[in-house]
Amino acid sequence: MPHRSGRHFLQIPGPTNVPDRVLKATSYPTIDHRGPSFATLGRKVLDGLKTIFGTEHDVVIYPSSGTGAWEAALVNTLSPGDRVLMFETGHFGSLWADLAGRLGLDVELVPGDWRSGVHPDTVEARLSADEQHTIKAVAVVHNETSTGVTSNIPAVRVAMNRAEHPALLMVDTISSLGSIDYRHDEWGVDVTVGGSQKGLMLPPGLGLNAISEKAKRAYESATLPKAYWDWLAMWESNPAGFFPYTPPTNLLYGLSEALDMLLGQGLETVFARHARHAEATRQAVQAWDLELLCQVPEEYSNTLTAVCVPDGHDADALRSVILDRFDMSLGAGLSKLAGRVFRIGHLGDLGDLTLLGTLSGIEAGLRITGIPHREGGAGAAIRYLADNP
Amino acid sequence: MPHRSGRHFLQIPGPTNVPDRVLKATSYPTIDHRGPSFATLGRKVLDGLKTIFGTEHDVVIYPSSGTGAWEAALVNTLSPGDRVLMFETGHFGSLWADLAGRLGLDVELVPGDWRSGVHPDTVEARLSADEQHTIKAVAVVHNETSTGVTSNIPAVRVAMNRAEHPALLMVDTISSLGSIDYRHDEWGVDVTVGGSQKGLMLPPGLGLNAISEKAKRAYESATLPKAYWDWLAMWESNPAGFFPYTPPTNLLYGLSEALDMLLGQGLETVFARHARHAEATRQAVQAWDLELLCQVPEEYSNTLTAVCVPDGHDADALRSVILDRFDMSLGAGLSKLAGRVFRIGHLGDLGDLTLLGTLSGIEAGLRITGIPHREGGAGAAIRYLADNP
Amino acid sequence: MPHRSGRHFLQIPGPTNVPDRVLKATSYPTIDHRGPSFATLGRKVLDGLKTIFGTEHDVVIYPSSGTGAWEAALVNTLSPGDRVLMFETGHFGSLWADLAGRLGLDVELVPGDWRSGVHPDTVEARLSADEQHTIKAVAVVHNETSTGVTSNIPAVRVAMNRAEHPALLMVDTISSLGSIDYRHDEWGVDVTVGGSQKGLMLPPGLGLNAISEKAKRAYESATLPKAYWDWLAMWESNPAGFFPYTPPTNLLYGLSEALDMLLGQGLETVFARHARHAEATRQAVQAWDLELLCQVPEEYSNTLTAVCVPDGHDADALRSVILDRFDMSLGAGLSKLAGRVFRIGHLGDLGDLTLLGTLSGIEAGLRITGIPHREGGAGAAIRYLADNP
Amino acid sequence: MPHRSGRHFLQIPGPTNVPDRVLKATSYPTIDHRGPSFATLGRKVLDGLKTIFGTEHDVVIYPSSGTGAWEAALVNTLSPGDRVLMFETGHFGSLWADLAGRLGLDVELVPGDWRSGVHPDTVEARLSADEQHTIKAVAVVHNETSTGVTSNIPAVRVAMNRAEHPALLMVDTISSLGSIDYRHDEWGVDVTVGGSQKGLMLPPGLGLNAISEKAKRAYESATLPKAYWDWLAMWESNPAGFFPYTPPTNLLYGLSEALDMLLGQGLETVFARHARHAEATRQAVQAWDLELLCQVPEEYSNTLTAVCVPDGHDADALRSVILDRFDMSLGAGLSKLAGRVFRIGHLGDLGDLTLLGTLSGIEAGLRITGIPHREGGAGAAIRYLADNP
Q1: B266-387 — its CATH code?
Q2: For the whole model, what pTM was predicted?
Q3: How close are the terminal C-alpha atoms of chain D, in Å?
Q4: How far is D26 from chain A (nearest CA, A)?
């Protein structure tokens, strides 16, 4: 194939654009994972991740996708047949519930409309009704990547506290970690699940768990079979900077670099940048007179925006034209949203002009495909970004 | 830390030296794992791996270490309590058995001396004695990375056939795949386990399974819980070049490049190179008058050589001096071999002069630490390589 | 300094954005410049450049900037005191003339308004008046990088032919080569001067000369002192793929890759892409109601656009705000244009969305600095690019 | 071509092995050479080079080879017909003299035997005889790359002082800078010439001049024509971190990284490492019973060793076998030494084991080609390096 001129625009909600510094770091020669240089690296990245998760407790790193980190959270804390309260916030909430079921857990899935987050009242009601405390865990997706809807984790925690229920709180932050404010310890989360390929600005390949003291205690009595995901082996090796099996050294190089970049900027700065880019995107969608999938303004995601196309039009045709003509990848509508929405990723290592190029490309795509819209969405974003430094 | 001049010599038995071409490939920008360019990549690497494994059947790729691929082999084919015949060929044979036990399998571990491979007669005897066919799988490490001993897989297959036993044959090729002749289909193996960081010349982060038709049938009735490792989801996505969850795109770039390199050279050439380097290494060890850990010449590994240090001397002190003075990493003796052997990795992307530098560094280390030896091991390897093009 | 999120937009008229493929190629290990692998590389890049220049005759490559290639063109063909007809098309036309003077040539500089190209009538008139043929060379800048004005080289050639004058025709294509149609042989040019860092999509560091048979004959009698720039040493070494002194090997790796990319796309495609991006840019400028520096539509450059800011406003303040707020570099007005124009580079490895991000950033900058303009320039470019695939 | 396994051994006396850190630095995106980030880079590398040269005065950097830096030294300080005293220390001493002649200088070339350095007595005698002070410069190669012979620069300076002669002292340090102790100011050198591709561990492409106050005064009256090489334009731009024409930005990135590495180690450490590697190499040559080209032990080069092959044998055939069989590049004998010597580069970013691999490869090559030698050269180097930390 001949070279396609210019940079590809990767504006899916993850994997995100990996900065040059990180890509170069990942391509340093692999070293001995049992030697002293590795130990220094291992300790550094494990420590740095604690700051990212907002925890002083343990973080573990798997060579895996985020799906693996979902599995790890469950098999280390639960036993066959344990009840888990989960939420159909969208495609990924449903997938996590499905995975839990396949591992032998008894999943209670709260239905959802894919346009709003978890209702804390529902959490409280369900848990209050569970007088026997048969529910062992509540599992929530912080930022539902399929819909662009966030759930209010502190409010979920408050709801659990009100119900005086001892279930563990597990939170998937795969598409929010390092992008949207998140505080594992302060918010009382027991297991937080993360991955490398979104806000951490890395290629895919790392699955993460942050683990509270309570989750650590739950580990003691959990009987789901586990070996690869077993936290204990990590706890034995990690303090020295090592891992129980061959770690993905080159991704850890990248993680080390990405941590330097994120913590060098400061997480507050990082979160503010994501909020500003998300608002600019929504200004564009509003100017186009298109509908946001998320119906609750307080729950708008700062890392991605899912946009509805009018009935009778095909979001996938739009995406296809944009990929073909403008070399930009946008996120598809998943499962029941297929063809009805497209998703704009605006997270990770993103600058204003790349966002404006992104929105310009969407506007051009809307024009080419004849999807009804008002012109000027990109222009609205220009004004917003100019006026809000 | 100030820069350490010159290249680090990574001569552990994996991870191996990743060629520049592969490292550069892994640092191309990550792309959309649901787009058409990715599909082309996915199909290419899955097809290429079939050639590497010597199979026309399915290969699956996990974002994982080799340990994950061990687990995948078991959970996809077996059910809780199933008996598995395993072999204490060394540290890794023991670890695989331990992992199987933790997953709920009933492991029958044949003890070993860590200096020789699996005895086909033992296999035949054990299986013949199992008249009820309660043993569901025989699991063998092809090339035991902790000892430098290979087991004769075709002979194991013949033994199983003689016993007329229906157990699955599972083989770990983590440190032999792409380095020592291996033929999944021809040898009648049901699940072959591999990883990225040895003969495939990649950074760690990929776990591999090659799967026979018989293993595929075993999947139907296997009831060990599984989600992340589930073959079915792979079989549904892979034919189109996709994966059921976010794949490790950048490692797949590297795999594509590595496949081009290995298949461009031709596997016969690759195997011959490893055999020649292994023999040169053994010539050096012999000239030093040191003892090989492997006691069976037919079972000498062509990817690594474990060398015994005389009683009263510490192999780890030698390794430490060599790392400190010559910036070379050698493999340690593992568990019960700790301090008694050091392991020389001579696999992957290796040239004659790097091997000679390696052996020279060991000779210098022996001199410095005062470990009794004859001089001239490196010289013997020079002669061998000069005389055997 | 903390990391600045997202990609820098390098939209000066060169150096241009170097594609990842080229950057990676430049970072392969340096090889022996006297060995057989180098010879293959050397022959390949020299051959490929001939296609780029549109010549079947010699091309030479210097480790130098474009300035060095200017000097080489003169010292290899001329003698002290030779008269050269040159043109004040802008800053670079003037600099070339200045350089010629410093080398001991007698420069006749035709004044210009920095807003239009070379007038063929002037060329014809000057040469016709030179009945003694004391003018030895006519030197023209094809695409004046300081103004965004191209000169019509075939028309200059016709003018020289009409005057029946034997002067050499020298053309600077530093910012047009590989971007705007150019034909060294067909247009009867004697020495063409180029560089690496514009349309060839390379980092700076290579200076180029394409040389006609007539220029080669002129070399025989030229007496300006020369050593580093001496063509003869190149002619002696180049046919075998070598160079008379240590060549810039890593840039030649990049050149090899860039040639594959340009010739793989086809030069016609490359030229059409530049024309389309240039027109989109001019549509934006027109929509903003700003003035183009170039006053002759037939002479609009397809690689850069110089835009005038209204009197009383400072183009450098605009550029500074855009750099600070949007991390984009634009070209400054040079010498007498300082502060009065800014220059947009739209050449090299450029895609539609990066161009739209560029124009969006300028529109945002105009808004922030309060420079009088109509909104909607970026929108006009969106429409143009959408409607003109 | 199929991939050649393992690393190429580039053991010519330059270009040298470029460390990964430097190669990666050179592949960062090119930036605006007129912007503030560039200014910071420019000032840093100019400052750092002063430390490398041992000067507090000006250093200039050209996009060029070392040959360009030779030319620059001459054209900025001398006038047509000026007499220059030069020395036939070897191929490069002769080439520099040839270049000077072609620029219009009157070269007095002191003949040499290519096996020893400049004799200070000769310098003193020639200068003393020049009572009219018609000799304007004495030009010496510090480390003759074609022979592995160094000249004693402080002794040359003393000789000039004794003769009370005002000639400028120019020194070529292309293959010694950053590897062998050198002090521009302390030793009273007027123009030092350097390049990027040897001790500075960079790809080729930078030519360097360090300039004394006396040379700066000589500039005032020098009338050789100059433009590209003109120091004045550098002096005008450099203090702000800029350059008079497009600088080779990506090599400057690499230079910045290389300076951090060299100065981070400390020049004393760097020089000691080169001395140790050179001595190990000579121990090997002695053990082989081969003859060093350099006949004066005090003049042995610490960056390369030229080794004579016995009469009737062909050094180029040896080099060819070594390249073909062991993928190692060694330096050829140049001009009158062609076929009679091979040159081992042991400078730049070199570790002990790469040197030992190098010497092992030579020993293997001697064995294959049947060149008479004693075995054990590599072994001698092992012992030397082991015993001399």
Answers
A1: 3.90.1150.10
A2: 0.97
A3: 41
A4: 11
